[in-house]
Design goal:
Number of domains: 1
Keywords: Cell membrane, Membrane, Transmembrane, Transmembrane helix, Transport
Distance between the termini: 15 Å
Mean pLDDT: 95
InterPro entries: EmrE-like (IPR037185), Small_drug/metabolite_transptr (IPR000390), Small_multidrug_res (IPR045324)
Order of helices and strands: HHHH
Strand content: under 5%
Organism: Guyparkeria halophila
Family: Belongs to the drug/metabolite transporter (DMT) superfamily. Small multidrug resistance (SMR) (TC 2.A.7.1) family. Gdx/SugE subfamily.
Structural class: mainly alpha
Largest sheet: none
GO molecular function, one term: transmembrane transporter activity
Number of helices: 4
């Protein structure tokens, strides 16, 4: 499978587990905690697989960028977090960084 698709899947799973942390109540609720840890493990595993072909710094930055962007957007949409112009602008900068790292990697 293409390393970039694996990295995308890892990033999407990061969004899921990071958002899921909200439902663990500080890891005091067993079922949500187990689900979050399983999804986090899968995300880390896929990140490690992607790093076989994508440079570590690029893969990690893109993985965290996907996660940060996704969690911030879900926070705005689902949890009524503020959607100020500045916040949206900085989220856009993260997306620009992700695209720039992918583009500059030479592995389009």
């Amino acid at each position: 499978m293409n390393a970039w698709l694996i990295l995308l899947a890892a990033g999407l799973l990061e969004i899921v587990w990071a958002t899921g942390l909200r439902f663990t109540d500080g890891f005091s609720r067993l079922v949500p905690t187990v689900i979050v840890l399983a999804i986090a493990w899968a995300s880390f595993y896929l990140l490690a697989l992607a790093m076989r072909e994508i440079p570590m710094g690029t893969a990690y930055a893109i993985w965290t960028g996907i996660g940060a962007t996704g969690v911030a957007i879900l926070g705005i949409l689902w949890f009524k977090e503020p959607a100020t112009a500045a916040r949206l602008g900085f989220i856009a900068l993260i997306v620009i960084g992700i695209v720039g790292l992918k583009w500059s990697s030479g592995n389009h």
